[in-house]
Amino acid sequence: MPLIKPFAGLRPAPGRAAAVAAPPYDVMNAPEARAMVAGRPLSFLHISRPEVDMPPDTDPYAPAVYAKARENLERLCAEGVLVRDPAARYYCYRLTMGRHVQTGLVAAASVAAYNAGRIKKHEFTRPVKEDDRVRQIDVLNAQTGPAFLVYSASPDIDQVLAGVSAAAPEVDFTAPDGVCHELWSITDQPTIGGLTQSFEALDALYVADGHHRSAAASRVAAARRATNPNHTGNESYNRFLSVLFPHDQMQILPYNRLVRDLHGKTPEAFLGHLADAFTITPTPAPVAPQGPGQFGMRLAGEWFRLDLNPARIPAADPVRRLDVSLLQDQVIEPLLGIADPRRDERIDFVGGIRGLAALGARVDSGEMAVAFSLHPTSMDELMAVADLGEVMPPKSTWFEPKLADGLVSHVLD
Q1: Domains of the chain (ranges, CATH numbers)
Q2: Tens-digit pLDDT profile for the chain (413 aa)?
Q3: How many Å separate Cα 89 from the centre of its chain?
């Protein structure tokens, strides 16, 4: 099976994209999602976060929630808000955030390539979130949230997408967060064939964001293959919805950490333990780390800059020398007692787009005991880890701008 294939997308009818498109399901909490759908009956959050249409105390993983998602999807289809394209195609997708521009391809990526490691991952998933996406795909019989994949930049692919995007876009709107979204259909068969061949020539793709979506698609495919006596490998469940961007157009922000308590320590004692590994400098302003091995910390009403002793940075291990690993290995596990950040509910992760003031506010409110700001992981670091078949700690990267849910969905025929 080719690495990617075109598909007939389910997408908003002309003029409806701005009303339908929504941020990814996992970048907001439940109250934020409810606020976002106020006055927006067509928002895709009614499908990706269907608990917004149910009582506030609803368990988001209850069967009724997934049934509500199916009901809302069928409603938007019946009303002609979402329409299936008549034939398979690719889609060119451009995101513009201020001066940052990235142009990629919407395609159906191969589950077999993902399983074989040709589509490389760099993080473990959190089981409860992976299970959630499996149930959502199964009930909807569709993949509605794209995985964000990256490839080593190819001049040939860039040239084709530049040519496609020189025409007027079919979709062009600016979301409430200021990000402009543009979309073009690619229906010309020679162009489709050329893109398929260009991607087939690549050594690998990399999962940048969407580990839970891609892992869930793999699980759904395995389950359906096992129950299909006539399985051929050409079924749509053998592919998963993806948007692919060149690595040199990526923008990675830090993924910061908060912890609810100091594991029985006073702030003074905690600072004393940190001094064994870090140079600690109080600062009057929030700390945005300027390079690897440097961290910001909000504790007991103050900001501190933490500079790790270089002798504690592993020289040759590409995973353990990541800042997210250094913080985990030097602070979060030994001092705060969190050995498994994938499952421990004492830790929370906040994307850098939220800002340092918001990070500190959660400590100052008493909700959290301590916050850490990090230097962002680089794209080169991500690809190096993935190429070795290794994985990063959870929540190592925060990509901006985010893809919109609802612009193109992949129906499992």
Answers
A1: 4-252+400-411 (no CATH), 255-375 (3.30.1760)
A2: 799 999 999 999 999 999 999 999 988 888 999 999 999 999 999 999 999 999 999 999 999 999 999 999 999 999 999 999 999 999 999 999 999 999 999 999 999 999 999 999 988 887 889 999 999 999 999 999 999 999 999 999 999 999 999 999 999 999 999 999 999 999 999 999 999 999 999 999 999 989 999 999 999 999 999 999 999 999 999 999 999 999 999 999 999 999 999 999 999 999 999 999 999 999 999 999 999 999 999 999 999 999 999 999 998 899 999 999 999 999 999 999 999 998 899 999 998 888 999 999 999 999 999 999 999 999 999 999 999 989 888 788 889 999 999 999 999 98
A3: 24
What's phi and psi for 112, nearest 5 deg?
-60, -40
Lookup result for tokens 């959290």? 368
